[in-house]
Amino acid sequence: MAEVKLEKLTKVYGGKVTAVDAVDLEVRDNEFLVLVGPSGCGKTTILRMIAGLEEITAGSVAIDGVPVNDVAPRDRNVAMVFQNYALYPHMTVRGNIAFGLKMAKVERHVIEHKVEDTSRLLSIFEYLDRKPRELSGGQRQRVALARAIVKQPKVFLFDEPLSNLDAQLRTQTRAELKKLQQQLGTTAVYVTHDRTEAMTLGDRIAVMKDGRLLQVDQPLAMYHKPATLFVANFIGTPGINQFPGQLRHAHGKFTFRHHDLELDLHHRYKVNEPGREVVLAVRPEDMELESSREKGFKAAVDLVEQLGGESLIYATLADGTKAVVRTEGNVQYDQGAHLKLGFKPEAAHLFDAATEMRIE
Ligand SMILES: Nc1ncnc2c1ncn2[C@@H]1O[C@H](COP(=O)(O)OP(=O)(O)O)[C@@H](O)[C@H]1O
Ligand SMILES: [Mg+2]
To answer: What ligand has the least distance to the C-alpha of 84?
Structure first.
């Protein structure tokens, strides 16, 4: 049982840099919550405040309803896994995994038992007597995980634990980590800047930008209903297509106007301010290359990436707006080829251009 509750959690470094700005977040019991956002947005700082490694400027962290602002790190019952693994180089794998338990004065035979069980769980049993330098990156990463798991904490805190692994190992370890967490049934806060990790690992995703929390939701709910333009673009690769334009009102209808293109908004949105600057956003897979719709964006092909299972067509509209279309794997175009880009109207998202907030 463990819930983590952040209330107006704030961190100001040196009286100047607001790294975390009044973040409210509830992590549920047994939940795997992924905190995602670009580099420097305050993710590590939040984890360190939960762990007790960083002083809290304002607000609070509570674990199971108990405020822990003034509780020492070792008494919070959390375990953190760091990006660089932070193993003790002079100790064996066994020594590294056992370290926390020794400090907690756990009996020797209990430690031995736990270290062996945990190392088997993570398939590093045969390396127990090696030093970290005698291991591959992936194996070191497992030792760091084992060191966290062996403590049987209430909460796991992961700070980009896979970012030092090569792509293939990262994908494999990602799947194992998810399985492991389900097995252990422990609450986890997992920090990453990797959108794919966020989508695949998170029970819920929390998106951050500039120290603020923008949206918390289940991965697919967030993908299909992003609350802001930033979230729309950040969740999903390649990013969402953005067509800036203006609302018009004519003949009793509201339309979206982008240069010479005028689209009926079909009364789908609550818009009643002609002249309002908006951004129409469409996912690459919701775009049509040579649309047979009456209206579409004229564009010229810049580049085609054929990825086998899919192709990505990068193109530029007459006014210089960039667009990308996801389509079947065997599609090819010459550079400069003319397209008429369309999209499914029901798949378009509308945002206010100034506030970047979603318009329903
Ligand atoms: N010890 C520190 N002193 C001053 N500023 C810091 C310190 N640690 C982090 N910061 C600043 O706080 C902001 C958030 O950093 P961090 O939490 O590491 O972001 P992230 O993990 O999302 O990349 C950044 O602007 C960073 O430069
Ligand atoms: Mg970080």
So the answer is: 2
* Ligand 1 nearest-atom number relative to CA 20: 14
- Least Cα distance to 110 among 76, 150, 143, 81 occurs for 150
Give the distance (Å) from ligand 2 centre to CA of residue 179. Answer: 24
pLDDT digits (tens, 9 = 90+) for 152-179: 999 999 999 998 888 888 888 888 888 8
In a shared domain, residues 173 and 269: no
Spatial distance between the Cα atoms of 211 and 228, rounded to a whole number of angstroms: 16
Q: Say if ligand 1 is within 6 A of residue 192 CB.
A: no
Rounded to whole angstroms, the maximal C-alpha distance in the chain is: 83
* Residue ranges making up the domain that contains 322: 241-359
Same domain, 298 and 181: no
The CATH number given to whatever domain includes residue 253 is 2.40.50.140
Tell me the per-residue pLDDT of 46-59, one tens digit each, with 9 for 90 and over. Answer: 999 999 999 999 99
CA 47 / ligand 2 centre spacing (Å): 9
Claim to verify: residue 209 and residue 282 sit in the same structural domain = no
Contact criterion met (CB below 8 Å) for 204 and 33:
yes
Give nearest CA residue, ligand 1 atom 14. Answer: 42
| Boundary-marking domain end, from 234, 249, 275 | 234
User: Over 90: is that where the pLDDT of 146 sits?
Assistant: yes
> Which pTM was predicted?
0.90
Judgement on whether residues 179 and 68 belong to the same structural domain of the protein = yes
Round the average pLDDT of the chain to a whole number and report it: 92
Q: Determine the pLDDT at residue 335.
A: 96
Query: Residue 267, Cβ neighbours under 10 Å: how many?
Result: 9
Domain end among 180, 209, 234:
234
Q: Is 45 in the pocket of ligand 1 (CB under 6 A)?
A: yes
Look up residue 64 and give its two tokens.
Answer: 């199971």
CB 19 less than 6 A from any atom of ligand 1: yes
Q: Tell whether ligand 1 has an atom less than 6 A from the beta carbon of residue 207.
A: no
- Our answer on whether the CB atom of 296 is closer than 6 Å to any ligand 1 atom is no
CA distances, 106 to each of 98, 114, 119, 122, 147 (Å): 10, 10, 18, 22, 14
H or E element at residue 109:
helix 108-121
